[in-house]
């Protein structure tokens, strides 16, 4: 099958089909007005079938938020696993994160508004996402130390400082408020400072 | 007169008394429900007297926002003018800014909510405030270059990068959302990276 053809709905795992339907309804009606019954109706299946996959409306909404956030963090894994100078990988990671957030937030504002309301209630999912980001950056920094590029005592602490220093470019509220006005060169200006700091052993 | 005694209202310049009254009313009723008539009534004076100082309700609200923001930036000037290592002054400046924002936002949430609504409409005032912050940081960085501490080509660009890298600690939305959870040691961790970057000539 050529790569560009989306598999027909029926070929997708049921869990994904339920999430697809929930996402469409959330986008259209918002989280308060989207019930498990609505999702079941859209898929022409029983409530019971939904509840086999998600134990509650909250669990279903959490899963939507989780999938949304995983779509941001999963492609970043490439910068974690690939070879090469850690400084370049770290900059690439931040640029890719910022780009993914801009796309998610600015290209699909309806879904973002729905997601944002869901995420407010799904703190565990958001915390898990942030922990994933910290873990990815920590791994890159540890590689940088091994390769003799960075002088860092506590890589996890340094990773948190890197995420703090770049929050302007990946925090949903700030990305939305800026309307994507921050350019890659703004990000690179901050990353130059941050990377020089990691090289100098400031963290 | 002992220093601790506030001068009686009548001793304050009229402009300040009008702003005091407007601030009290904004805090209590919000910007939409606070009119020039309300302010005049609270001060037992005529509209005309208010309009002698502020040409419109918008001008009065802008002045409230401006005073609010000046109360944040004016004390930071001490870090700009004092002698000593630029790195230490820059860290002190960021810590003081973060502290002032925390105090303004968390200690007086009613006024902050009113201010925030006013500031949304007073973009020029906010831009002016941000320009003041950039100017202060630029001056400290220029001193650091003169003193041989920092290697920086474009001090204004470096100053903007420093403000971006610390936005987590001074952006109203993030300060409010964190509820002041970010500590001075979180700020210092970021500033270590930033200052090492300025020393290494990364900006």
Automatic annotation (TrEMBL), chains A, B:
Boundaries of every HTH tetR-type domain copy: 12-72
Record keywords, A-Z: DNA-binding, Transcription, Transcription regulation
Name of the protein in its database record: TetR family transcriptional regulator
Family annotation (PROSITE patterns): HTH_TETR_2
Gene3D superfamilies membership: Tetracycline Repressor, domain 2 (1.10.357.10)
Originating organism: Hypericibacter terrae
Domain of life: Bacteria
InterPro entries: Homeodomain-like_sf (IPR009057), HTH-type_TetR-like_transc_reg (IPR050109), HTH_TetR (IPR001647), Tet_transcr_reg_TetR-rel_C_sf (IPR036271), TetR_C_27 (IPR041478)
Positions of the DNA-binding region: 35-54
One Gene Ontology MF term: transcription cis-regulatory region binding
Any Pfam family hit: TetR_C_27
